[in-house]
Design goal:
about 475 residues; mainly beta; 16-stranded antiparallel barrel; 22 strands
C-alpha cells in the first residue's frame, strides 16, 4: 500500500488533488535592504537539488508513510520589504499584502510566511479496496510560522474593525477562517473511472491557477497568489469550498474532465456553486477551459467606526462581525502552457461577472469560521461589474536545481456605476473603470528534495477606479526566504 502525494496522477503535479509590529520610515528602508542583502548572500552560498513545484510531495523513502498514511508538511518563511504597505498581519496566511492595497501607506520590513507555498501540515492516504477501486482521503491545516497562529484571513479583517485606513494592519479576505482543517475530504478513486471525493476541497479554478500561473500561485511573486479573488471566481473566500462533491477523470494522457458542486445544506440556490473543466495535454502543450457559477458569493470587509457603534444594539460582537457585499458570480477562463526544455511558457485569461444576488443574504448570516455578517449589501451591482484578468510569463531552468521566473499580470474592470457615476474612468469612484498591473521576477534554488531557497520581487500599481480610496497606488516587495518540505 502506498500513499498519494496530494497531486493528480499522470505526472501533472499541479493539483491539490482530491488528491512584529513592522518598522517604518527611512530607517526601516535601510534596515530592510540590508537584511535582504545579507539573507540573499546566505541563501546563494549553498548547493542544489530537485524540488516539487507546488506544495508538499516528498517521494520515495524520504516520505513519512506508515500503513499507507503519509504525514506531510511545508514550512515557508522569508524576509520581506514593502515600499508601501500596512503593518503585517499575524493572521493572514501571507502576513503582508504583497500587492498594493487600499490601506498601503508606509514602508514595512518583517518576516512573512508562505511566500512560495502555503505553510501547512496534513495527512493523506489511499487504501486499495479491490483491483479497481481505492479509498482516498486528505486532511490539512494551514498555519503562520512567523506568529504561530492558525491561518485566519477573516480575522485579519475583524482586528481592523472601527479603524481608519491609516490605523489598519494588513487585512485581506480569504478562505482560511481559523478552521482546524482547510482541506478535509474522503472519496473513491479508480484509474479507469476517475476520482469522486466529498468534503471541503480546493476548487477546479484554484487547481488551474496553480498549474498555469508562471509562479505556481506563489503569494509573494504573482497577482493570482497575492489575491485569491481570481482563483475564487470573484470571491477570495471561494477558492476552497465546504460541502462539495468533486469528480475528476482522465482519458489516457490526452483529455481530462472535472466537475464540482457545492451544496448549501438547505433548499434554494443561496451559497451553492458549480464548476466544470475540460482540458488536454499533447507534445509539451497543455490547455484547460473552466466555467464557474457561485450563488450568493461573499466579499467581506472590516466594519467602519459607525457600524461598530451600532453593534451593541444589534447584539453582535466586534471581534467576529464583518460587513459584506453579496453577489452572484459567473466566471470562465482559458489557460495554456508549453514546455520546451529548458523553457516553460504560460498564459491565461479569466472573465468574471458580478451581479446582484438572485437570493440575497440577510444581516446576521453566519460566514465561514463562525464569523457573522452584521451588515450586508445585496444591491452593489445594479449594473453588472465585469473583471478581466490576464497573465503571461516564462520559467527558465538554468541548471537542474535553479529556476528563474519572469511574469506579467493585469486586471481591468468596467465602469458599472449609475447616475453621475455612470461611465466614469477616474479614481474619484470605485465603480469607475480602472485596473492593476503587476510584474515579477524570482529565482528558486533547490538545495535538496526537502529544502529550497528563493529570492525575488513584484511591482504592482493601480489606476483609475481600481485606485479609488487608496492612500498609495504602487508597491514593490523584494523578498527572500526558505521553504522546507517533509
Amino acid at each position: 500500500m502506498n500513499c498519494t502525494n496530494g497531486t493528480r496522477p499522470t505526472g501533472r503535479n499541479y493539483r491539490a488533488r482530491g488528491f512584529s509590529p513592522a518598522h517604518t520610515g527611512s530607517r526601516a528602508l535601510g534596515r530592510g535592504w540590508s537584511g535582504l542583502i545579507l539573507f540573499a548572500a546566505f541563501t546563494a552560498s549553498v548547493p542544489a537539488i530537485a524540488q516539487q513545484k507546488t506544495g508538499p510531495g516528498i517521494t520515495g523513502e524520504d516520505r513519512l508513510t506508515w500503513h499507507g498514511i503519509t504525514l506531510y508538511g511545508v514550512v515557508d518563511v522569508g524576509l520581506q520589504f514593502d515600499t508601501h504597505s500596512a503593518p503585517f498581519s499575524d493572521y493572514r496566511p501571507a502576513a503582508s499584502g504583497n500587492i498594493v492595497r487600499q490601506n498601503s501607506r508606509q514602508s514595512v520590513t518583517g518576516l512573512t510566511p508562505s511566500n512560495m507555498g502555503q505553510s501547512r501540515v496534513g495527512l493523506q492516504g489511499i487504501e486499495p479496496l479491490n483491483d479497481e477501486w481505492s479509498a482516498v482521503f486528505q486532511v490539512e491545516s494551514f498555519f503562520n510560522p512567523q506568529s504561530g497562529q492558525i491561518a485566519d484571513s477573516v480575522k485579519s479583517l475583524t482586528v481592523n474593525n472601527g479603524r481608519t485606513l491609516a490605523a489598519q494592519t494588513v487585512g485581506v479576505d480569504g478562505s482560511s477562517a481559523g478552521q482546524a482543517f482547510q482541506t478535509a475530504w474522503v472519496g473513491l478513486k479508480s484509474a479507469r473511472f476517475g476520482t469522486l471525493t466529498f468534503g471541503r476541497q480546493v476548487t477546479l479554478l484554484l487547481e488551474g491557477t496553480i498549474k498555469y500561473d508562471p509562479n505556481y500561485n506563489a503569494s509573494a511573486f504573482g497577482l493570482l497568489g497575492a489575491s485569491n479573488t481570481y482563483s475564487g471566481a470573484g470571491s477570495q473566500q471561494d477558492n476552497r469550498l465546504d460541502s462539495t462533491a468533486k469528480y475528476l477523470v482522465t482519458f489516457g494522457d490526452l483529455l481530462h474532465l472535472g466537475a464540482l458542486y457545492k451544496f448549501n445544506g438547505s433548499n434554494g440556490s443561496a451559497n451553492t456553486a458549480f464548476q466544470a473543466e475540460i482540458g488536454g495535454e499533447y507534445a509539451g502543450a497543455s490547455v484547460d477551459a473552466y466555467y464557474s457559477k457561485v450563488n450568493s458569493a461573499i466579499t467581506a470587509t472590516s466594519l467602519t467606526a459607525a457600524q461598530v457603534a451600532k453593534l451593541p444594539a444589534l447584539g453582535y460582537s466586534v471581534s467576529n462581525s464583518l460587513a459584506a457585499t453579496i453577489s452572484d458570480n459567473t466566471a470562465y477562463a482559458l489557460m495554456v502552457s508549453y514546455n520546451i526544455d529548458p523553457w516553460k511558457f504560460f498564459a491565461g485569461y479569466e472573465h468574471i461577472k458580478y451581479a446582484n444576488p438572485t437570493t440575497p443574504l440577510s444581516a446576521g448570516f453566519n460566514d465561514i469560521g463562525g464569523y457573522v455578517l452584521a451588515f450586508v449589501t445585496n444591491n452593489a451591482y445594479n449594473n453588472n461589474k465585469t473583471v478581466q484578468v490576464y497573465w503571461t510569463g516564462a520559467r527558465y531552468t538554468v541548471i537542474p536545481h535553479l529556476d528563474l521566473t519572469l511574469a506579467y499580470y493585469g486586471y481591468h474592470q468596467n465602469a458599472y456605476g449609475t447616475g453621475i457615476q455612470a461611465g466614469c474612468s477616474s479614481s474619484k469612484y470605485s465603480v469607475c473603470s480602472g485596473g492593476l498591473e503587476a510584474f515579477s521576477f524570482d529565482a528558486d534554488y533547490r538545495l535538496n528534495q526537502h529544502l529550497d531557497a528563493y529570492l525575488g520581487a513584484m511591482y504592482s500599481g493601480v489606476h483609475d477606479g481600481a485606485a479609488s480610496g487608496y492612500i498609495s497606488t504602487t508597491n514593490i516587495n523584494p523578498t527572500v526566504g526558505v521553504r522546507f518540505k517533509f
